[in-house]
Design a protein that fits this description.
The protein has 181 residues and is mostly helical. Helices cover 56% and strands 7% of the residues. Helix 4 runs antiparallel to helix 5. The radius of gyration is 19 Å and the shape is elongated. Pfam families: ABATE, zf-CGNR.
């Protein structure tokens, strides 16, 4: 089971609040996540549950970005208690037998359990510092750092480039200011 892909569900949810304004936006988000199955079952209750989860996940990423490991773990444990994991063996889409975290309950339960369990796995296997918020101002989008050297600081190459250009310009300006005196 690829739990990193489940953790990416959490990132996708945190980074796309605009997709949680209606059921059609939620369907689009689920298609982007690679889990578009059974979106015809979506209800307004699913949408409300995922909006609530998003707020809780934002708090997890904020705690991680602030270096508060205990807060990250406490928040994830609270989510795991509210959304227990029910593993099930499945085969679909031509794939061999593999584990899914849940197949029952409301549609959103599958997404919620996957996202929370994925983050819990990242935290226990790699550490809470592997969850972060982009350091490129004013971005603040969530990311997972799965690099071998713990070097990720930005949500995308675009933000990394923008931050590097801004830092270069700031250094250049300081050099010009001090050189002219």
């Amino acid at each position: 089971m690829d739990l990193i892909s489940y953790a990416e569900l959490a990132v996708l949810l945190v980074n796309n609040p605009d997709r949680l304004t209606g059921l059609e936006g939620l369907r689009t988000l689920l298609e982007e996540s690679g889990r578009p199955r059974q979106t015809d079952r979506l209800t307004p209750g699913d949408l409300d549950a995922l909006r609530g989860l998003r707020e809780e996940l934002v708090a997890v990423f904020e705690a991680a970005a602030g270096g508060d490991e205990r807060e990250v773990v406490d928040r994830l444990n609270a989510l795991l208690r509210r959304h227990p994991v029910h593993p099930q063996i499945a085969d679909h889409d031509g794939e061999p037998w593999h584990l899914h975290l849940t197949e029952g309950g409301r549609f959103c339960d599958q997404y919620i359990v996957g996202a929370v369990m994925g983050l819990a796995t990242i935290v226990t296997d790699l550490g809470p510092d592997r969850l972060g918020l982009c350091r490129a101002a004013p971005c603040r989008r969530a990311y997972l750092d799965t690099s071998s050297n713990r070097s990720r600081r930005y949500c995308s190459e675009r933000c990394a480039s923008r931050a590097n250009v801004a830092a270069y310009r700031a250094r250049k300006k300081v050099g010009q200011d001090s050189g002219g005196r």
